[in-house]
Backbone:
């Protein structure tokens, strides 16, 4: 129960209180309301809902369960990385002797060690850095993603999309190439066949002679194919077909 003060109660009062609690749990009586008029869950056990005595709580509430240490000074900000504050045009006293920025000394300088520091050359004075200090809360200190700009993730998405697009384009090209090769290989053996048919016509009716000639042609064909390479692989099929006809 969220009743605040645990003043003395008679036996009768105590019994009534228990009955009311039971009724609330069963949903027969309306739930107890806290200071802000919000309902208090009747199933919250007493040891959680009753406030400690030293809080002197007058009314039922669950405020003591909330974190009252929340400090408005805590920020969710992050450092302005790479931000420059002031660009000097000549060396100032007390500045970094190496780069000429006021915000650090030569020992802490992140600039390349110059052969002759900015103090002596008075040239290429580095701008002062923006130095910030934050008061971060417990979570803020441990937040590894603090300061992360979620919109930069679109760059990652873009790069992946570009990759996918390039892959699709390449695959399409490969497919077209394959189809072209297939087409050309289908046409080539047909040409050969017609050539060889002509030869056969010239030889005339002598079948044995024709057969001999055919084998010779095939042999020479094979030699030619070897020299020509892959392109006319279909030619061998044509020759085999011719042999079968004889
Ligand atoms: Zn420096």
Residues:
């Amino acid at each position: 129960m969220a009743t605040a003060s645990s003043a003395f109660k008679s036996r009768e009062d105590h019994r009534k209180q228990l009955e009311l609690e039971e009724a609330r749990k069963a949903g027969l009586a309306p739930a107890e309301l806290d200071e802000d008029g919000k309902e208090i869950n009747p199933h919250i056990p007493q040891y959680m809902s009753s406030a400690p005595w030293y809080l002197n709580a007058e009314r039922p509430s669950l405020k003591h369960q909330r974190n009252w240490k929340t400090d408005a000074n805590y920020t969710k900000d992050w450092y302005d990385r790479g931000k420059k504050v002031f660009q000097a045009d000549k060396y100032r006293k007390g500045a970094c002797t190496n780069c000429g920025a006021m915000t650090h000394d030569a020992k802490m300088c992140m600039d390349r060690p110059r052969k002759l520091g900015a103090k002596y050359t008075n040239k290429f004075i580095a701008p002062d850095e923006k130095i910030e200090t934050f008061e971060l809360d417990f979570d803020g200190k441990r937040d590894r993603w603090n300061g992360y700009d979620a919109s930069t993730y679109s760059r990652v998405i873009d790069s992946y999309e570009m990759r996918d697009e390039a892959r699709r384009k390449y695959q399409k090209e490969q497919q077209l190439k394959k189809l072209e090769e297939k087409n050309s290989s289908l046409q080539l053996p047909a040409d050969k066949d017609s050539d060889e048919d002509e030869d056969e016509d010239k030889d005339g009716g002598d079948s044995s002679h024709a057969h001999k000639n055919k084998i010779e042609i095939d042999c020479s064909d094979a030699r030619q194919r070897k020299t020509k390479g892959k392109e006319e692989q279909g030619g061998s099929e044509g020759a085999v077909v011719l042999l079968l006809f004889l």
Observations:
- The chain has a mean pLDDT of 78.
- The radius of gyration is 46 Å.
